[in-house]
Amino acid sequence: MIEESILKSNFVGRDGFRWWIGQVAPEEAQGxxxxxxxxxxxxxSDPWGNRIKVRIMGYHSQDPEILxxxxxPWAQILLPSxxxxxxxxxxxxxxxxxxxxxxxxxxxxxxxxxxxILGIFGRPSTTExxxxxxxxxxxxxxxxxxxxxSKYFLNTEVGSQEGARSTSLPLDLTKELVDxxxxxxLSSLVDKLGAELGEIKFNQEKIISSFDALGSIIxxxxxxxxxxxxxxxxxxxxxxxxxxxxxxxxxxxxxDTETIKAQFADVLGGINTEAFKLKxxxxxxxxxxxxxxxxxxxxxxIELLGGGIAKDMMGKLQGELAEKANNGLKKTYDxxxxxxxxxxxxxxxxxxAGIAAQAAFINPLKDFGKNxxxxxxxxxxxxxxxxxxxxxxxxxxxxxxxxxxIDQAIGGILNQIIGGLTKGIAPFIGGLSKILGGxxxxxxxxxKAANLMSIASMFKCKPETKLGAEQVQQKLLGVxxxxxxxxxxxxxxxxxNTADSLTEGLVGAVxxxxxxxxxxxxxxxxxxxxxxxxxxxxxxxxxxxxPLECAGVKLNxxxxxxxxxxxxxxxxxxxxxxxxxxxxxxxIDLTSGxxxxxxxxxxxxxxxxxxxxxxxxxAVVDFDPDSPTYQQVVDVIVITPGENYPIKDPGEPVxxxxxxxxxxxxxYDKDDKVTDNAGNEYEIIVDNFGxxxxxxxxxxxxxxxxxxxxxxxxxxxxxxGFGAILRAQLKPRPPYQGEVKQVIDCxxxxx
Length: 751
Fold this sequence. Notes:
By secondary structure, the protein is an alpha+beta fold. Among the domains are: 1-149, CATH 2.40.50.260; 553-646, no CATH class; 662-732, no CATH class. The protein has 15 helices and 21 strands. The strands form seven sheets. A five-stranded mixed barrel has the order 1-2-3-5-4. A four-stranded antiparallel β-sheet has the order 19-18-17-20, with no helix packed on it. Strands 6-7-8 form a three-stranded antiparallel β-sheet. Helix 6 packs across helix 12, helix 9 (274-344) packs antiparallel against helix 10 and helix 11 (362-397) packs antiparallel against helix 12. The longest helix is centred in the middle third of the chain and has 71 residues, at 274-344. Residues 38-45, 150-172, 181-201, 453-470 and 505-518 have low confidence and may be disordered.
């Protein structure tokens, strides 16, 4: 022993490596150490970092009577380098629990007074906690008084937490959520944490489908005698870009950190843990992929439409060139024939000379016709990249896809097509200039839209039906029909030509032009300043930033062959106050009936804030030739009130002015009672068949009738009648004159 002491180096490893296996002692022996929190009830300072009491097999007695748990030595826990030491505020708490089997060595070798824990042996995973501590080296629960089992225990722990005295607690959730989470595989991101984080599934299907719902525009017409292929393609491109912008806005909102935190607050507690950061990153990564996929789908759709425009433009250009060439060849023949005949007086020689003059142009014409497919293919080949560049510029610079911005984007596509066709065709028609009479393909294609209106249909498989006056051309999901404005083609070509003229001497010097092929032109959407208030350019005022203010809700009455009908919105079911107030469309105040309507017009409900949805309305036209309101709109009925419409002007209090009978029903009695949800009572008049032919509301000028603050629903209380549909029509409350009382004045003679 003396020799061993003399020869001992006191250097770890040189005197041998004394390893051991032990079991973490129960909570009662650890004080507050096991929970890593200060217990004010105990005379103990803050728990000291990484130490815990361990009973070592083969060294400590298995009989707690001989060696009580409280007398066991403290074992220092050796941390991995990835956990941090605590310096610089970097530390990851240990996760040993009572009953865990650990592996370690003695720092002081054979003296065996300084045990160090190197690692831990895993336990079988279970959602059911084991029983309490009974004796050493028998498995028992790892739960403590501070870390108690839950009825619904999620088989995971939240990732790392900062702070030397933090602890990882199981997540106490609902059974439904636990079952859902525990059935999922562990996320691949877990390995990066070095801990077990159950894959908390977010609803990818909901994210994917969320942009296919309300607010999408649907084009209803097909190519017909009323709408050219050029016009239709321009509309569909505009619709696709508008829908894309709406979808990208919805998706972008889902990437917001606060939105994600609210979504997982019940699971992660909204805390800023590494687990939450990774889950946020995972969701944002998925949403980004959906954004790119939506942009790609828009690119493909617009590329298809643009390809159709390019083909039809090429066809129109070929037709115009053929006509010009035929006329030029005829003039060439006539000119040469006349000159030779005058010189020779021989018709046969003059004829041969005329034919020979024409023959000089035959080969250039053949070359042109032969190279048309290749020329068109080159144009189509570069179109996809140009459209992709346009979409990227729009997404990067534009915050609000207003109509003028999208018109510019379509103008850029047309410039790409026109520029490609013009440049590609130039080498082949150079030798034909003498017979074309100074014809310019670019000027022709950049001419007025009338040049393009005779373009053949690019949708050959679609039936060509005449668009009638009673048909609507666009619908907005959740809103209803949309009023179609005048032809887009003239406006788009005008802005395209202006943008093209601005590129002279500036190609490569203006943002985005060279990167997009140099054929688009200088447009506002290429400039990040387009989203800055007060932005102006040579193209006009086209501000593409967030709306500075919302004008509220407007009603457009269109179609039906007439004009002049006007109406205003009446709101109720109000939520919020002031500028935050929103509500439902509970009525429509018809201010002008217009004239000349041969069919019921459409009602477009326009929310400039783009936040309301669901309201629909129907116009009623007087078709009685003997009526003074013949072919006028006499009523506008609210079918569904919708919700969330901004209320910029609360307006005056309203009452029921009259009742429109949509369906009179049958078998009603004159004594039947009609009431509304505001408590007003109505008088009804029925005919001999029991049909309701008139409903009389209380006279608000003479009766203190309650004002209407929500969508009015009329209910008929009847034992026999059925089928009646009644709509209450609202008006501002008239001045109250007071109740009318009946006075009987009896005249008598005074004697």
